[in-house]
Amino acid sequence: MKYILVTGGVISGIGKGIIASSIGTILKSCGLRVTAIKIDPYINIDAGTFSPYEHGEVFVLNDGGEVDLDLGNYERFLDINLFKDNNITTGKIYQHVISKERHGDFLGRTVQVVPHITDAIQEWVMTQSLIPVDGQKEPPQICVIELGGTIGDIEGMPFVEAFRQFQFRVKRENFCCIHVSLVPQPIMNGEQKTKPTQNSVRALRSMGLFPDLIVCRSSIPIEMAVKEKISMFCHVNPEQVICIHDLACTYRVPLLLEEQGLINHLRDRLDLPIGESSSNLLFKWKKMADRYENQQKPCCIALVGKYTKLRDCYTSVFKALEHSALTINYKLNLMYINSSDLEQNTENQDPIKFHEAWQKLCKAEGVLVPGGFGMDGTLGKIQAISWARKRKIPFLGVCLGMQLAVIEFARNCLDMKDANSTEFEPDARIPLVIDMPEHKSDDMRGTMRLGIRRTVFKVENSILRKLYGNVPFIEERHRHRYEVNPNMINHFEKKDLNFVGQDDKGERMDIIELANHPYFVGVQFHPEFSSRPMKPSPPYLGLLLAATGNLNNYIHRGCKLSPSDRFSDGSDDSFSEPRFSDLEIN
Question: Which of 299, 371, 469, 496 could cross-link 515 (Cys pair, CB 3.0–4.6 Å)?
Fold first, then answer.
């Protein structure tokens, strides 16, 4: 097993997750089996109880793990399925060690950060790195480990010390460190400054870790003189300084790393079994990046949500839309609309924001209402859903978005004016959306239905069934604690709102579709979590196809793209012509 540790300096949010994912992609393109681990030094056990404004979205894994959004980057870039233990937190480590102490495993010895906490970190990494994540039985060959935060943070010091020891435990030829740092360029003089990187590397070296590569992040390409200065003062050769400037397309990052000799350096440094031949996977990534940058035809989608101030709150949703737009060769124009701004006559209503929000909604060619929790902004979401339904604008509701679509239809089409969710009104006269009786617990996580679940299609003539490849069932990831009341669905199907997908016991309503509408679909699961750049999520792809007027032709062709949507060179590969019937259902 080879281990690659990715650390960060100067500031957080510098792009370590994309860098780590890109490194894994390059190594996978060389035929190696790659896994990834994310370390978050916070004391929370997992990310499940975070506000999206704290750390961005909560990403959900197949096993129900609620983890940091960077694991979503790993899964999308590497096309793998990780596990909850691939996300290590301080809380998990301390909980593990304290449980052992209570069990008597330390035989009365004093439990300390060194060696007990640091040993637990090392053992966790060594154990988890051997778990296959690509559907194969063979263990990974390389583990890319991202250490969250910045070097010097007090929370991260036990992890830095653990890896200082770890490099000797696994031997130098099996461990390397890559440090990602910021090279700022102040406006006042326009000079690229190396001092922050020098100080960051000095701090890392003082803790016993010596970077084999320094990845410099900057707004524009770094000048050679700056690169040589970093090389001289950080004790590395110039070729060990890699520069990644801001790019419009993140799919270009693996290519930029490869162009600067990353493969050759890692092959020599870790003695990797890598040949000299070029990789077909990287060639596909290049074609994908070129296609992204050359998109001309726009497609305007309105995302009506609660957490629109920070783009990271809906990272997977944005990526799923981007994957779909990329597949059909359209340029995604995603408009974020705060659902509260759509509500009229509310307290502190800003009339300017109200009119701007409705102007955006009126321009949209498709409407998306994603998942969320809480009462705030639900009326605005319902109004957006009503707008899309009445004007036959393509609509996709995810999780809460599906529940609100059912409530909107009940209120406006079935004359159930008091229909509501018990999440918002515990004593609702018409409890249309209810909490799941078996998911009750004092533990916040215990109240959730999490992870991959099977959804069985009830009918043959379903849009989503066709988009998924006419399979009898699918498996997608869930994250919810409320559901549509199964005792009330008969009222809807008489009025053309059909529950076309249920769980394998017929107790959970997972998919709705409205007849006589271009595309009005709701799903209780979160299909965005399983979307990949070269395997877009079918519900999101359907939204983009309907918004661009191509859905009927796409379905008529057996869910294959037309020759005009293929690459300009006329090639036909798995990216240019996806076949969802070939999806692996894990």
Answer: 496
Is 526 an annotated catalytic residue?
Answer: yes
Q: What is the pLDDT of residues 540-585, one digit of tens each?
A: 999 999 999 999 999 988 887 765 554 333 444 444 334 333 333 2
Please name which of 157, 34, 200, 76 lies closest in space to residue 536, comparing C-alpha atoms. 76
Percentage of the chain exceeding pLDDT 70: 93
Cis peptide before 115 (omega within 30 of 0): yes
Element (H, E) at 358: helix 351-363
Quickly list DSSP for 221-255.
PPPHHHHHHHHHHTTS-GGGEEEEE--S-GGGHHH
Q: Which fold has domain 296-582?
A: Rossmann fold (3.40.50)
Tokens of 1: 């097993």
Classified as helix, coil or strand, 72 is helix
**Residue position matching structure tokens 């060619």:** 365
Question: ∠173-176-182 over CA atoms, to 5°?
Answer: 160
Helix, strand or coil for residue 138?
A: coil
Retrieve residue 474's tokens: 């699918």
* Mean pLDDT value across residues 76-89: 95
Phi/psi at 306 (nearest 5 deg)? Answer: -95, -30
Catalytic residue among 216, 299, 526, 559: 526
Residue 571: predicted pLDDT: 43
Please write the tens of the pLDDT for every residue from 8-63.
998 888 889 999 999 999 999 998 999 999 999 999 998 888 878 777 899 999 99
Closest residue by Cα to residue 452 from 426, 485, 478: 478
Which residue in the list 234, 299, 313, 399 is annotated as catalytic? 399
**Tokens representing residue 28 in the block:** 């996978």
| pLDDT: which is higher, 531 or 350 | 531
In CATH, the number for domain 2-290 is 3.40.50.300
Q: Considering 30, 179, 528, 559, which one is annotated as catalytic? A: 528
* Residue 493 designated active-site: no
Mean pLDDT of the chain: 89
Q: With beta carbons less than 8 A apart as the criterion, state whether 14 and 8 touch.
A: yes
Radius of gyration of the chain (CA): 25
Instruction: Round to whole Å and give the CA distance between 86 and 32.
Output: 19
What span, in angstroms and rounded, lies between the C-alpha atoms of 107 and 103?
A: 9
Question: What pLDDT sits at residue 346?
Answer: 64
Domain with CATH 3.40.50.300 in the chain: 2-290
> Is the CB of residue 334 less than 8 Å from the CB of residue 319?
no
pLDDT score of 332: 94
| Delimiting residues of CATH 3.40.50.880 domain(s) in the chain | 296-582
- Give which of 287, 359, 364 is closest to 321, Cα–Cα: 364
pLDDT of 339 strictly over 50: yes
399 is catalytic: yes
Residue 278: pLDDT above 60?
no
pLDDT of 559 reads 82
d(C-alpha 546, C-alpha 563), whole Å: 19
pLDDT digits (tens, 9 = 90+) for 505-517: 888 899 999 999 9
| CB distance 119 to 73 below 8 Å | no
